Amino acid sequence: MTGRHGTVGVMIEVENLTRRYGAYAAVDDVSFSVRPGTVTGFLGPNGAGKSTCMRMICGLTPPTSGVATVLGKPYAALGNPGRQVGVLLDASAQHNGRTGREILTLGAIMMGLDRRRVDEMLELVGLTRTESRRRLRNYSLGMRQRLGIAHALLGDPRVLILDEPANGLDPAGIRWMRSLLRGFADEGGTVLLSSHLLHEIEVVADDLVVIGRGKIVASGSKAELMSAAGTTVRSDDDARLATALEVGGFQATPVNGGGIHTDAAPRAVGQLALQQQVVLTELREAGSAGLEEMFLQLTASDAREGVAA
Amino acid sequence: MSTAAPTKEKDIPMPSRLTDAGAGIPVSRLVSLELRKLTDTRAGRVLVLVVAALVIAIGLIGVFSGKPSEDKDLTDFLSLASLPLQMVLPLLGVLAVTSEWSQRTGLVTFTLEPRRSRVAYAKWSAALVLGIAGVALALISSVAFTALAGALRGGEQSWSLGWQVLLGVVVGQLLYMSIGVAFGMLIQNTPGAIVAFLILPTLWSILGSFSWSESVAKWADTNRTLSPLYDGSMQGDDWPKLFVSLLIWLALPMSVGIWRMTHSEVKSA
């Protein structure tokens, strides 16, 4: 894939990354890579190891074993990383007593940028002049996220690494961020974006990496994962169709409110229905609903709700 | 994804979007940035103002207390002004380091400059620059107060200032600043490092007043070992004593502290 920078290959590469805290493995043998010009959603429940993994990619947490590279180099070997990789790991991790403008100014000085860049970025993320002169302690979480995104974009980077940037944004803010990231990727930029909510990133992500309990449980393009998410079918006689599916070697689970979810492809379901002479009233790929279901199943062992139940 | 991506091509060099994007951040830039960070927060500004206010207050006390011709020389006012500089100014050196952890700004600082030892040396250098500025302030104010004492109280003033004293004040201040930075790096926590910096040497001085620990204090109490430096009266075994005390209070915490800073995990919570 060729982006606006005429680059080819992998922008972020994670190989067998592991981080242990005593006996507990926060990240356990994780490998994935992020292609240029794409938005990759890094998905997992709270405490699955997303943030630890991202801190290792950025050189803040030393890995127990394994390697992570950004733009083909270990993060620490990037000369002036802010000009190549924009990072937002925690929007609240800023000095409470500094104004938003001062925080961006410090970043601009460090990266060796023109100060005008500060005003441009403030405008881009929709922070007004007055807001930019308030101290961070008076910022809402949503404003902190906007400031954090402004900080990440300050150095005009080719790669963005964002940990839960949609946290605290209102629906309009989430939509704004999606279109910002989509535009960034369409121009050849690369985004790694974490979230614990599938619906927050499935619209914007091209690829998905799903992590649960420190391990990768699924990864691939969104289209692949969607088609692997199975089929939803409704018919006049769901029970009969379900039996036929199971006899045919497929899984069939009843869906709340009627219908069946199955891992058979729509065509196979249609053929079975024809044989069984069951009238279909609805037949479609489960798509995002199926992906949601799969996400919940894949990560169920790690989900706190699952433990409580 | 991982299977589809052509990993073998990752070595192809990528053109930089901005001309110097690949070049490292010059240390001079890091130092001036750290100086700005020292004074762009309320805590930093308050500390600077407190130092200035104390220098002035203590100078005024010097002018109006005692007999007109007693302790009114330039060197007397200089050593008075040095007291708040020794006590309070190094706290800015402490804050320069600890705020990266207490305020969690390290998450940003160390992603923008992953070579953390450069950040450590930049903070140290910034603290030294501030120390020099402090000595300059002390010099100006002590000249002013000597003149004031002469005008208001009369008496005979000595304007002589030996190079040993001046050098001692400068070197001593740089050492105090360094000790502050070292404590910050070692402890990484603002209240902890400040308390340690202010209390430990005092505790040591109190211990040293007992006869059984007197000989230890001669070698390990920086308040004692630095005082001949400030007087410009360093001689004989003053030097090894100063050296040993600095080994304990500066070299040791600084090396362990820099190791901690470069090796510890930077987390947000």
UniProtKB/TrEMBL annotation, chain A:
Keywords noted in UniProt: ATP-binding, Nucleotide-binding, Transport
Matching InterPro entries: AAA+_ATPase, ABC_transporter-like_ATP-bd, P-loop_NTPase
Single GO MF descriptor: ATP hydrolysis activity
Pfam families the UniProt entry points to: ABC_tran (PF00005)
ABC transporter domain: residues covered: 12-238
PANTHER family, alphabetized: ABC TRANSPORTER, ATP-BINDING PROTEIN
Family in the record: Belongs to the ABC transporter superfamily.
Protein name: ABC transporter
Species annotation: Flexivirga endophytica
TrEMBL record, chain B:
Keywords on record: Membrane, Transmembrane, Transmembrane helix
Transmembrane region(s): 46-65, 77-97, 124-149, 161-186, 193-212, 242-259
Domain of life: Bacteria
Name recorded for this polypeptide: ABC transporter permease
